[in-house]
Each structure stands twice: as structure tokens, then as C-alpha cells.
Amino acid sequence: MPAKRRKGSDTKKPSTSQPGESSLLLSSSSYNKEDKPLVIPRNNKNKREENVLVIYKKKWSCIDSCCWSIGFICCFWWWLLFLYNAMPASFPQYVTEAITGPSAHPPGLKLHKQGFVAKHPVIFVPGIVTGGLELWQGHQCADDLFRMRLWGGTFGDVYKRPLCWLEHMSLDNETGLDPPGIKIRPVSGLVAADYFTAGYFVWAVLIANLARIGYEEKNMYMAAYDWRLSFQNSEVRDQTLSRIKSNIELMVATNGGNKVVVIPHSMGVLYFLHFMKWVEAPAPVGGGGGSHWCANHIKAIMNIGGPFLGVPKAVTAVFSSEAREIAVARALAPGRMDFQTLQHVMRMTRTWDSTMSMLPKGGNTIWGDLDWSPEEDYKCGAHKLMNNDSQIVGQTGEESSENANSVNYGRIISFGKDLAQESSSKIQRMEFRDALKGNNLANTCRDVWTEYCDMGIGGVKAVADYKVYTADSILDMLHYVAPKMMKRGGSHFSYGIADNLDNIEYENYKYWSNPLETKLPNAPEVEIFSMYGVGIPTERAYVYKLSSAAECYIPFQIDSSAEGENEENCLHGGVYSVDGDETVPVLSAGYMCAKGWRGKTRFNPSGIRTYIREYVHAPPANLLEGRGTQSGAHVDIMGNFALIEDIIRVAAGATGEDIGGDKVHSDIFKWSEKIKLKL
């Protein structure tokens, strides 16, 4: 009979245990030499020997933290979605009203109860980037994307195949049209621009409110177009202008002869301005509609956030692919942000001719020079938020207080904060226009080529040595740093002021989108509205600096460290701000209707009536309000109840006088009077 063994006598002891002790070692292939053991002593039942549990604890890494964070966010997000779908449909409105009081009825419902009904057909003209684009032909990397949206929607392919997406979204750098083997076309119908992405409305709220008084797809039309193309090229490639003409004629004919109300937004304002000249011009360049086409088919043009005279933001988009927010991100992560993102963005966007339509027009006469600008007395801290029922300022602007702010917004780009504030007599500039380009930057252009790669160190230094750029010199500078793009754009757009509008040269289509180089149609019964938000700091001028040597593939950047001495200085993060809608300054959105077209002028020979309707920005009171119903922001204003009500009233038959004429809160009339332009 075998001898009895004492319990635990045949347990193998690891080298880490002490004599007379028993232990359990739990090993794993995942630990390494840097892992530290966690020793947990425990007593066995007989208390004769102590068992030691040795666990190798894995070192916590940054990847673990990221994974856990992402998992937590996803779980929390799905939990919120579950609660949202589980709650009654009226619950969010109930909570909102409990916090803020009873909410206003949607304008469409309100006006429907008052007896308003659909009358005039409505044409929507979307702006840049808000219209969806889909793939019809592509390269091998996009074989499974036929008729899938590459712009708008979920943007899933930006993350799945970014280089393939960039390749297909770019146009030909020589022609400004489709690259070989690629066809991207605009989405058609109201769905083209009702939502930009899921949950982010553009035209959807306005469409829904128009439907409340009887509008439907047969009397609403989305004039979708490929917003990357120059305006005339959209006709050359897609016959978009011809389609707009045909649809307007059809809608007038099928709606009892009622003329259309056209509602362009953002760059769509310039696009429709081009259309009005195209439709009356003789074929084959124009639409052949004759000099009375607009008078016979258009009741009113209600421009929303129109950059009639361009936007300074377009300058920085071409110059360094930046805006205020991007400049901050670039400063926080300079190397990664530049190399992996901005360089690709610059190469793609410099093939989009449409961006050149929004460069500042009118030169120093409109935007100011080294010593003067129309908004030079603007004080950032003086504007108070108010609702849209507040007191209306008269056309003389006499109710605006004077102040001593001396910011010179005419210096749109200054290389250094000191040069933005220095007396012009003390600024010594070196001419850049004839500077030789050399010392190729090819060592920084291994992955993505841009025109800066051919510019060289000498060319970069020449641009910086000019020190300060106004609206006049900026165009020359852009021709120097982006010659291919500006050469293409020069055949489609112009930025000057016409001396004699009867000169035959202004029959060229490149002048048709510049209100300072073309006449409005002979249509005295048409009304033109300029509707835009105010009360939001809007980019107007910039402080720049040279990037470090390691970043010279985009050698210039906004100096986000430049700050003003006080709030009234309007300088924050290297950007000087004025009043506007966050994208378009008041001067650009309002000048033509305030003065350039007001009454009979050489730009408005038939005396088309013009109105300004400003909407003071009021942010949402809480998160449940979403983007708000009183927003004045460039895109969010499309959900502004006051603006929507004005549009519905006009579409139902009201005139500009019926809805109250001008409604002005800014100093647009005062600033317009400072501009000495022959009218």
C-alpha cells in the first residue's frame, strides 16, 4: 500500500517562493520584461503553508487608454440614441418649453393659419460645398462607388480611402474640368442640398415651412450644380444654366403665369448673378432669352448671405489653405497638420475654379488701402446681442455710436502684428512682382506637389518682404504664388470696377458675376433683397508669418499668437474681425443693395428696388434648441424663423414694402457712404 502523502507535499515550488511556502504562478504571453509582478499572499486551509499568487500585471499604454475612451464614447452614444428613440416624440419639446417657455410656432404653420398659400414658384440656388456630388465614373480604387456621394452624406470614403477621394474630388489643373477617367456630377432634386450630412440641415427647414402653405416639388426646384467648376464651365460641361432656364420657364407656364421667387445662398448669389447675364446674352455663349427674359420670369431675388464683393476668407484659402479655426489647429500640431492635411487640401482646392469667384472685388476703392478702410471705426466690444424684434436703425446709420478704434482693415495681409499697426510712412517694402523664383523646395515636396514646390526660397522671401498687402496687391501676389490657378481663373472671373459699362469688353462672361462690372437686367418690377446675419465676428484681415524651415512646403501661415491689447482691437488668433455672419462681412453682403444698386445707378439702370434685411445673431438658449431659430451664422441662418417668414410672405405674393422694407442693425449705410465710387 502506498504511503499517504501530506497534502501539498508534491506541489512544485517556483523560484520566486520562499522555503516552506507554496505559490501559484499565472503566466501570460502578453507580459514582457518591463512588466512588474503583483504578489498576493494567501493562507491555505490548514494554515501550515502560505500560498502566494504571483500575477504579472501588463503595463498600461496610451493605446489602451484610447481604446477604452473610444469604447466608452461609443457605448455612451448608443445609450443616448436608445433613450432618444425610446422617449415620446413630444418629450424634447416639452423639456425645452419647461426651460425656456413656450416655443414659437414654425413660420409656415403660423402663416398657414393666417391664410397664406403658395403662389409664386420657388427656385433654390445652393452655395459652395453645400450641394451633394456623386460619382459616375472613376478609377479602380472607386469601382464600388458608382452613384455614391463623394461630397455630402456620411463622408465615409474620406476615412476609408482618403487619397482615392482626393484624386476624384480634384479637377484637371490645366482645364478646370474633369480629369481623364473621372466623372463626378451634382445630385439632382431637393435632396441635393436639403441636408449636408445626416442631421445637419441646409435647405430642409425652409423647404418644410414652405410645404406648410402648400408648396411641393412641382413648384419648388433645387438648381443644383457642380460648385467646383467656374460658372461658365458648369454650362459647358453639364448645361446647368440651360436646365435652370428651362425649369423656370416650365414652372412659370404651369403655375398660372406667376413669376418665380429665386432664393440663392452664399456663392449661389454670384452664380445667379452670372445666370441673369447669361440667359439674356445671345447664343452660343449665352442662353438667347433676350433683354426681357428676367422681367418676364422673375418676381424677386432673395439673396441669403451673399458675398457680392467677395470675402477675405477666400484669400487665405488660396494662399495657405487656412481660416481662423485651421490656423489654431496648425499652431497646436504644426508638422502633422501641414504635411498630412493642408498640403493635400491645397492641391485639391486649387483645382476648384469656383473659389476664385469669391476673391475680394473692387480693390482698394471698396476694401481700403494702407491708411483707410470703411469699417475703421468699428469696435468689437460695442455690439450687443439682441433679438430680431429690436429697434431698426435708419439708412443713415445715425444711431450707431462713434468710437476711436483705429484698426486699418485695408491691410488684408500683414507679415507681423507690428506692420498691421505701423504708420504707412514707416513701412519699407521690397517689390515681389519681378522677383526670381529659385532654390527649389523639392526636398519638402516628396509626397504632394503644390505650386509652392516650384517657387523656391527666393520667391518665398520676396512675398514676405513686401510686408503688407491690400486688395489691389493681393491679386498680384496670388498670381505670383498660384500662377496656374489664377491663369485659369482670369478667363472666368474679374475683380475690378468698370469705367464704362457700355464698352463691348464687358459682354465677356468673365465679368458677369462681378456686380461692379455688369448691369442688372432691364426689369424694373423685380425686387432684390440682401438678407444676412450680423453680430458675429467675421474674418476681415490677417497677421501672417513664415513657417519654420521644416514646414516650407506651405511656407506661410496665419500667426495665431497675435492678439489684440483689448477686446475692442478685434485681433484674436492672428485674425482681425468685423461685423458679419461669420463668413461674409457686412460690407460685402450689404453694399450693393445699400448704395451700389439703390435707386437708378449705372449698375442698376432700370431702378430695380433693393432692400436690406439684417438678422441679429442670437445663439440657442440650450442644447435642446439645436442650432437655434434666431441664428445669424452663414449656414445656420437657413433655419432662422424671421428670415423664413420673410421668404414665405414674398413667395405668397407680398412685396418688399409689405414685409417692412429695410431692417438694418449694422453700420452698412454709414460705411457705404465712405466708399467713393462713381454711381
Gist of the model:
With 679 residues, the chain is an alpha/beta fold. The protein is 31% helix and 15% strand.
Commentary on this structure:
Pfam families: LCAT (PF02450). It is an enzyme of class 2 (transferase). It is found in: Membrane. GO terms for molecular function: O-acyltransferase activity; phospholipid:diacylglycerol acyltransferase activity. It comes from Heracleum sosnowskyi. Helices cover 31% and strands 15% of the residues. The protein is globular, with a radius of gyration of 31 Å. The N terminus is likely disordered. The protein is of the alpha/beta class and 679 residues long. α12 packs antiparallel against α13, α17 crosses α18 and α19 crosses α21. It contains 21 helices and 20 strands. A hairpin with a 6-residue loop joins β2 and β3. The strands form 5 sheets. It has a 6-stranded parallel sheet with strand order 10-4-11-12-15-20, sandwiched between helices. The longest helix is centred in the N-terminal third of the chain and has 25 residues. The termini are far apart.
